[in-house]
Amino acid sequence: MNHAANFVDSIHNESFEDRYLAKKITHHSMIYDHGREKESLNGYWHFGIDQYDTCLRANWYEEVYEDAEGRSNPMDFSFDEWETMKVPSCWNMQKEKYFYYEGSVVYTRTFQYRNRGEERVFIKFGAVNYDAKIFLNREYLGCHKGGSTPFFVEATGLLQKQNRIIVVANNTRKRNHVPTDNTDWFNYGGIYRDVELIRLPETFMKDFTISLVPDSGFSKIRVELEVEGSKRNGWAEVRIDELGIVFPVEVADGKGAAVIDAKPELWSPEHPKLYEVKVAYENDSIREKIGFREIRVSGTDILLNGNKIFLKGISAHEESVLNGKAVTEEEIIENFTLAKEMNCNYMRLAHYPHTEKAAKIADEMGIMLWEEIPVYWAIQFHNEETYQDAENQLTELIKRDRNRASVIIWSVGNENADTDARLKFMSSLAMKAKELDPTRLVSAACLLDHVHHIIDDRLAEYLDVIGANQYYGWYQTDFNNLIKLFENSKPDKPVIITEFGADAKAGHRGTADDKGTEDCQSDIYRKQVQVLEQIPYVKGISPWILYDFRCPRRLHPITQNYYNTKGLLNADKTYKKPAFYVMQDFYKKIRP
Ligand code: GCB
Q1: Of 421, 427, 425, nearest to 388 (Cα)?
Q2: Atom 13 in ligand 1: which residue has the minimum CA distance?
Q3: What share of the chain is helix, strand, coil (3-state, %, to 5)?
């Protein structure tokens, strides 16, 4: 970069972002990091709101204040004198003045590093909303897009004893993003998941997949490996000591795959059995807890380990009153515990990838999961770049969680109008999900035809399970049309009612006709479950939603106050509304 001209360049150059966008961080640079030791780079980072993107325009990362000829770059920043911000966190929750801030922010910290014999070093970001540009020791490493999936940069050869890392994070909502500028949830900002340093040998396992082989009578396990580094041919070893299994996997030209006979106890919500699996290749090793189970559909049934199941679920956002999207493990456990108390065996993690910790905890606790990417409402379906972003987010999610037994469904979107462009966009995503992971079900939460009251979406052809959002009794006021909807629809696949619900301010009482009261909400819930129970092809339900959540679209001062109050609990989860108990009773009495 031209330091001397920097001062003037930086104020005249309106294409300043192009050079940053040209270097993308995508799923290609993901490394398999489960079951590995990592070092935390969390803590208090220096933090500056940078509304006009001066850091990027003026190359602050070069830390050049004066060039050889004595021309100076104005002193507009001083990284280590800035205030600090907790990482991980959503800045909105740290100071009141940042609550509604949307835009560009600079994070930076220094850290010490000492080589311990590793030959490769990576830095992982669990998630930064929405895009992140990463700089290490005056080098620009790339830009990641997508606010809910992890990404990795390689630091090999760049680290010294003392290091500076800079992250320019920007959560501006944009039409071409995934999600687009209009959603029904709060747009939190920041580095809100862990930042970690990973030390690896020169040759290491870049990807690892393990699962039961579908249709093998639950008696075969398949392993796939991808190796990066110079030793691309050799033998990996997989051990599952509890099953007495040790088997070699031949790696040829960086890839290996093997199938082995095994009879594991199968994972299920009632019996969430996990095995310790160890994989070793050259000097690299992974040790991870894995569950084995099979999920598939047959006609309009969903089969877990060959048995018909009903998904007794609830939808949930990733949010807490205190922490925004930076939820803690305790908060995740609290959510699953509440779901279990409601007699659920399943949760829809709406509307974007939640932290990977959720699926790990669900593996342990025995909750089946629906995981989703934020292809939500009016995405720019005709925009190729938007498609690439969505496909990358889907790939990052699947590569991250495909060894989690709890995850049974990948969802490629929510409530999108059935246009030709959308059909092309979302059918391509559905096919991509199948290609990346043939062992799970693919779905989407579809819009129904509310004119003719019929489940009719051309995307259904590409899905294993049809997700259906419907708000009869609430947005569609005539409840009887729900009965018509089911009379008119003859799906040949299982249907999950991915949403129904109604607003109710906690403690607000009235009659069943008084909108926004608990009485109206529980009345709608009672009527809904009475109908749903009788529909043979409905094989799962995830009402909207476990607890109230922040939402800039909800301006009713009495019943909402910037919260979507369709929760079965209030926002801080201290109070259960009567509809919670309607679901609890319903799930208790219906089939398993
Ligand atoms: C929906 C959306 C969900 C909203 C909900 C509502 O259909 O999928 O994101 O929050 O309705 O409350 O309107």
Answers
A1: 425
A2: 184
A3: 20, 30, 45
Which amino acid appears at position 266 of this protein? L
The residues, ordered by sequence, that sit 6+ positions from 111 with a Cβ below 8 Å of its Cβ are: 41, 162, 163, 165
Q: Is the pTM of this model over 0.85?
A: yes
- Give the pLDDT of residue 1: 45
372 residue type, one letter: E
HSE, side-chain direction, 13 A CA sphere, residue 537? 20
End-to-end CA distance of the chain: 64
Mutate to test the pocket of ligand 1, among 185, 352, 375, 499 (most ligand atoms within 8 A of CB): 499
Find the 359 Cα to ligand 1 centroid distance in Å.
23
Preceding peptide of 545 cis, ω within 30°: yes
Q: What is the mean pLDDT of the chain?
A: 96
Residues 6+ apart with CB under 8 A from 472: 478, 479, 481, 482, 485, 500, 528
What lines the ligand 1 site, CB under 6 Å? 184, 351, 414-415, 469, 499, 544, 564, 566
CA of residue 184 to ligand 1 center, whole Å: 6
Determine contact, residues 564/503, Cβ cutoff 8 Å: yes
CA of 305 to the centre of ligand 1 (A): 32
Mean pLDDT by 10 residues, the chain (592 residues): 58 93 98 98 98 95 77 79 98 98 98 98 98 98 98 98 98 98 98 98 98 97 98 98 97 98 98 98 98 98 98 98 98 98 98 98 99 98 98 98 98 97 98 98 95 95 98 95 96 98 98 97 98 97 98 96 98 98 97 64
Q: Whose CA is closest to atom 7 on ligand 1?
A: 469
Distance, in Å, from the CA atom of 547 to the CA atom of 319, rounded to the nearest integer, reads 9
Looking up tokens 């699953």 gives: 336
pLDDT digits (tens, 9 = 90+) for 449-491: 999 999 999 999 999 999 999 999 999 989 999 999 999 999 9
Tokens of 463: 């899905």
104-112 and 162-170 beta bridge pairing? antiparallel
Instruction: State how beta strands 407-414 and 368-372 pair.
Output: parallel
Please choose from 315, 351, 372, 415 the residue to mutate so as to test ligand 1's pocket, defined by most ligand atoms within 8 A of CB: 415
E strand map for 182-338? 190-191, 195-200, 204-212, 220-228, 234-240, 245-252, 255-261, 275-281, 284-290, 295-298, 301-304, 307-309, 311-316
